[in-house]
Amino acid sequence: LLYAQLELELELSADVRGTTAARAVHVLTRLTENGPYGPYSGPVSAVHVLKARKAYEHALQDCLGQSCGSA
Hints:
By secondary structure, the protein is mainly alpha-helical.
């Protein structure tokens, strides 16, 4: 779900995307960085979005490969 939200935000242009959506992308990218949370200070760089996208892809693949949720 988080990955889908990130993908959706990337498809919307910066002009259409509201502050709330930009903040959501900020939070989603920060979650993948495993560092301390920092306050929203503006749009997330494309590099951080790409890294977050890849992290969510890998997490999904790992989950699917390990039969996530069925223990």
